[in-house]
Amino acid sequence: MSGPGHSTSTPLSAPTAPVMPGGKEPEVNKLFRMAMKHEASDLHLKAGQPPMMRMRGEIARMDMRPLSAEDMERLLLPLLNQNQRRILDEEGGVDYSYVIGQDECRFRVSLFRQRSRLSLVARRVNTSIPSFEKLGLPATISTLCNYPEGLVILAGVTGSGKSTTIASMLDYIAGREALHILTVEDPIEFTYVDKKSYFNQREIGLDCVSWHKALKDAVRQDPDVILVGELRDVETFEAAIHAAETGHLVFGTIHAASAATTINRILDLFPPEKHGAIRQALANNLKSIVAQKLLKSIRPGGGRVPTNEIMIVNPIVKKLISEGRDSSLLDAIRMGFQEGMVDFTENLRQLVDRGDIDKATALEVAPNPEQLKMALKGIKVATPGIL
After folding, report:
1. pLDDT in the model for residue 327
2. pLDDT per residue over 235-275, tens digit each?
3. Which of 54, 192, 331, 387 has its CA 20 to 30 A from that of 212?
4. pTM (two decimals)
């Protein structure tokens, strides 16, 4: 998911490459620049393997010698500041942003130990924010930016483009309304340009000491829109719900495969005795869930294209969530097509018909391949009554 967009500036907190003696860049920057040159989505470094890159969804080994454990220590440890080194030593892994040159390119880095040796995975983040059209997102996405308050969740596995989609949504809002948009991230991925809206971006560990402190401060900083990075635990979810309840539009991401499984994923954060209260909080405050996957495009130079499932919390969906009838949410999504809802099966059919992906790819990722085969033939599956 890439495309031209607005230029961005690096926040004061963004860690840039340290300057080596003689003013030279760190040696490892050659590998980061290699990923930039080949437009790889990720750079992978592991002791015992040559440098690797993910290109068009697949891992490719570079024609270079394998890196030794000593190479990894020599190349990577000098990049860390004192706090990052402490986290690596105490917890076995550390996440941080890394900027090449004067904001030439930004990477989201995960440096960790495996079998007592260092490994690195760095996600290349576009310094421009693509539009909905460039990303190939459904038209409904723009309507999800118009809520005055509530919670909008982007769901998907790692590498599904959730952060890019949210960045596009926030950039869209910023160009249309005079608001204060506050992001709390670990680490910051995209940097934004102040337009009609203006941004404040806080990175855990650099701009604030903890999620608890940042999220406690957030509602006191007069934001209209809040990005709460990843809904990873009870603390972040409760903060997101509290912000939504107090009149803010809140965006967050979560690791889940579909709209229905997103509800279950949130409930899994809490003990069973709290599930009823959490369901009611979701029914009252959740506005939409957008589940997303990235697929190979068959268009020349197309890269990857998203397929989406969009659930909007209308009265039917609200009732199903409140009553714990998650198995009926997919039927509610299909019934709500006139409101802009779409399930993966229908969206995959649209992508095939549009010439973005081939039929084989669509069938491979389809939740129900038989239903997709029928849809591609123009046969619609009847939706049962769910009330």
Report:
1. 93
2. 899 989 999 999 999 999 999 999 889 999 999 999 999 99
3. 192
4. 0.80
| 3 state SS of 42 | strand
Joined together, the tokens standing for residue 96 give 């941080």
User: What pLDDT was estimated at residue 314?
Assistant: 97
**1 and 188 in contact (C-beta within 8 Å)?**
no
Q: Whole-angstrom Cα distance, residue 366 to residue 303?
A: 20
Look-up: residue for tokens 């190349």? 75
Residues 151 and 289: their CA atoms lie apart, in Å, by: 9
The stretch 306-310 carries a mean pLDDT of 97
Q: Is 353 exposed, middle or buried (0-12, 13-18, 19+ CB in 10 A)?
A: exposed
The 3-state secondary structure of 227-276, one letter per residue: EEEECCCHHHHHHHHHHHHCCCEEEEEECCCCHHHHHHHHHCCCCHHHHH
The percentage of the chain sitting over the pLDDT mark of 90, rounded to a whole number, equals 73
Q: Which residue has the tokens 């506050």?
A: 182
In the block, residue with structure tokens 């003689």: 22
All structural domains of the chain, each given as residue ranges with its CATH number in brackets, are 21-125 (3.30.450.90), 132-342 (3.40.50.300)
Which amino acid, residue 122? Answer: A
Strands 150-155 and 286-296: parallel
Token pair recorded at residue 230: 């990843």
